[in-house]
Amino acid sequence: MTIPVRVMLIGIAVALASCDSKPAPAESAAERDAAVGEAFLNTTGGEPVVDPAIHREVATFFTALGKAFLHGDVSTIRRHFSSEKLIESAEARGLIDIPGGSRRSEFLRGFDVGFQQSMGQWSEAMGWHQQEIRKIARLDTDTLLVYARFWDDELEVHTKSRWWLSRIDGEWRAFDWEDFDQNMRVSTLMGSMFGAVTSKAAWLSSFQAMMQAYSAANATGDMVSALTDIQPKIDQLLTHRNLPMAIETMARTLRSGGFVVMEEFEKALVELDRIEKLDGGNPLVHYQRGVARSGLEQWDLAIESFEKYAETLGWDADVHELVSDAYYGKGDVPQAISHAEKGLADQPNSWGCLSSIAIALPLDRLEELVPHFSKLEDAESAYLTVIDYAVASEDETKARALLQQFERAYAQSEYLEECRDMVESLRTGETDDKNP
Questions:
Q1: Edge-to-edge strands of the sheet including 143-152?
Q2: Are 150 and 163 in contact (CB under 8 A)?
Q3: Contacts with 151 (C-beta within 8 Å, 6 or more apart), sequence order
Q4: Which of 12, 31, 108, 424 pairs as cysteine with 190 (C-beta 3.0–4.6 A)?
Q5: Residue 431 has what pLDDT?
Q6: In a 3-state reduction of DSSP, which class is residue 175?
Q7: Is residue 11 pLDDT above 50, yes or no?
């Protein structure tokens, strides 16, 4: 499970002018839901853009941006964004109000510096390895609204978002984006931060401390430690009254994620109920609730939660994987196999789905997995992951069968000895205490 951080850019808090922010005109829920449904619930996405050349340009844009994020290439990232256009858009929506003259120039310079710093700080967390452009809407001659689905090979999750692009000096540049899993748009978050800075809100320092702590912990690459270590900072932030909804939702989302990774599932469910009261349209509530209910072995309730998530944002490989595991937990093997197969059809690189189907398949069907492994770029690591999952599930027979399959296919693999040790640990009773 991942907690999206694509919109948690602390550099947005560099607002320096002392002005009041205005309430933003809200997009109607019906309009937004219709657009999201058209993009992600339909099998083929929305209607193609009028000019196929535009689709190619947008695909090239996101391919380059995803690589730049993954490699921390800040200069390339900067070329793909327009902080000035973001400010103009936020002003037009009534989120911020910046005076003219030298103070405006000062603000724009400070914001651009902060924007660069935040991009460098969060670039790896914002990267993706594969993309799917689901819908492109032309807002005017030089402005597009792009709905996209991204896949992260390492976290094995899909994220869905929409991006506002503007053609500036002949090149497409992003100036706003929204993460659908969190129902959070960058310009809206920026408006909350702007208002806090200009009014010197009491909660601002607590928010900055929370995000700095998260950044430091996340830099280690250990998501579990990151979500665990920041819990005291979250608690401190939530002692403040009258937090903007976007800020409180973010904090409580991180808190519920922390409870999940610490396996305090009952506490996670309580926190998720609070988030739902704040933001009833937040799909991540259903996703995390499903994970927590799975942890409590409430399989039917978990499946119900994941299905609610899919009703909003569609089925992805990672959701199929979680539902497959829930069906396997309740003893419905055919459904477990079905969902794992659907997940692999959606994303062949999903080692999670491969693990789920390996556990669910009967022994005499394990050979069906060989073609899946053979198509993977790193099949040996995939075998290591799948065998580890079988060991964690304490299925010695299945683990040994998978090990034999691995030995036949990759007799010289450096991972074989490790896999043999893991499988042997099932016989000796020296397995690690794992929750598959």
A1: 130-140, 143-152, 157-168, 171-179, 184-185
A2: no
A3: 128, 129, 130, 131, 132, 157, 158, 317, 347, 349
A4: 12
A5: 55
A6: strand
A7: no
**Beta pairing, strands 171-179 & 130-140:** unpaired
Higher pLDDT, 220 or 154: 154
Distance in angstroms between the alpha carbons of the first and the last residue of the chain: 13
pLDDT of residue 385: 96
Return d(Cα 71, Cα 338) in angstroms, integer: 36
Written as one letter, the residue type at 167 is: R
Q: CA triplet 125, 130, 136: central angle to 5 degrees?
A: 100
- The torsion angles phi and psi of 159, rounded to 5 degrees, stand at -125, 150
The answer to whether 43 and 216 are in contact (CB under 8 A) is no
The backbone torsions φ and ψ at residue 415, rounded to the nearest 5 degrees and listed phi first, read: -90, -5
Task: Using DSSP, state whether 250 is helix, strand or coil.
Answer: helix
pLDDT top residue among 157 and 353: 353
SS3 call for 131 = strand
**Residue from 280, 330, 281 nearest 304 by CA:** 330
The token pair that represents 364 in the structure block: 């005499």
- In whole angstroms, what is the distance from residue 11 CA to residue 125 CA? 15
Of residues 105 and 375, which shows the higher confidence score? 375
Q: What is the DSSP string of 138-159?
A: EEETTEEEEEEEEEETTTTEEE
CA distance 258 to 263: 8
pTM: 0.85
Q: In the chain, how many H helices and how many E strands?
A: 20, 5
Closest alpha carbon to 121 in 187, 213, 207: 213
**What 3-state class would DSSP assign to 178?**
strand
CA distance 22 to 96: 6
Of the candidates 376, 375, 380, 430, the one whose C-alpha atom is nearest the C-alpha of residue 405 is 380
